[in-house]
Fold:
Amino acid sequence: MNSTSEIRWDPIESILAGASEEKLLERGDELYRWLSDLFPVCRSLTGNGVRQTISYFQRLLPGLQIHEVPSGTAAFDWTVPAEWNIRAAWIKDSQGKTVVDFAHNNLHVVGYSIPVQATLSLDELQPHLHTLPEQPDAIPYITSYYKPYWGFCLTERQRATLGPGEYTVCIDSTLEPGSLTYADLVIPGKSAREVFLSTYVCHPSLANNELSGPVIMAAIGQYLLAHAPHLEYTYRLVFIPETIGSIVYLSRHLEHLQKQVVAGFNLTCLAMTSRIPFFTAGTETPTLIASHRISSAPCVRTPNTTRTSRGGVMNGSIALPESTCLLSHSCAASMPSMTPIIPHSTTLISSLLLVCRVVFASFASASISSSTISDTAPPFSENHNSESVVFTQV
Structure:
């Protein structure tokens, strides 16, 4: 290893020592702005929302390549589904009052709902309504990708207000041959051996699951691009729809990935709490690898509001209106006590630092442990010319 010096890098303390808090928070504000820009976009497995999201990241990451895979394309024993897009959806009562509106929150429609225009009694409508009784103010995130269906998601409190009578329902959507969209960026290093990073771009207005992953990965991508001449490894960054996107990507690159990849990471749910769990392949039990350690006054921010405190991580009990509920149905089902949160600047920047630590350290050893690798200088550090970084166990 050609090293002139070693840096003891703790991803919070050392970074803060190498850069002012203001500079760190400015970077966090930038990440939060990306998240706020993308939060309203209605994403799914396919469709214009995915294209809009990936095009946004393409502006942040020069060289990011966008790919379209036609519906019906075989990927191992799976098939790329039809493309889904939606323009509007609503439920109106017998007085013409809109009681559920996709324009208010894109979680209100079951993902991949087929188009419908009908008048139904409440009893006929009920099988198409989805709520979370144990979280009466939360809108569940429901999808029906591979079974023709239509439905609406609403809060349990909204559902309780629906009285007997007729309701007009409309879902103005299309489900027809199109394509699946994904993007990748390969950043060459001195070695052809690759570190593989992936994240999901298929969830609608869900900030933690899943805009935190794409936003953090875009920031990592910018950092890698800035240090490309000095990278030891080649890095492959992939923005894909969940499951089918992964299968499609593997079907197209399997032989290369098997030969070249030395480590792979999927970035997901990176602003869930003050802790980040780490799953290794083939296990279902997470190992806590790191905790956000920038802590002072709690801070709650929603899009288009200002920060109330220049510090702190979002933690504890936070009540949010149903229009900003961020829990997916799967998260709500598996973690019923979890409180919805919105990742803000400090949470995002500390997540970025901690993920960098895992990505740049763990593939150099069999486990997350003390190790030395020759690749990066830590983000925001003034020591960009250093070739060696020593990591200590979290």
About this structure: The radius of gyration is 22 Å.
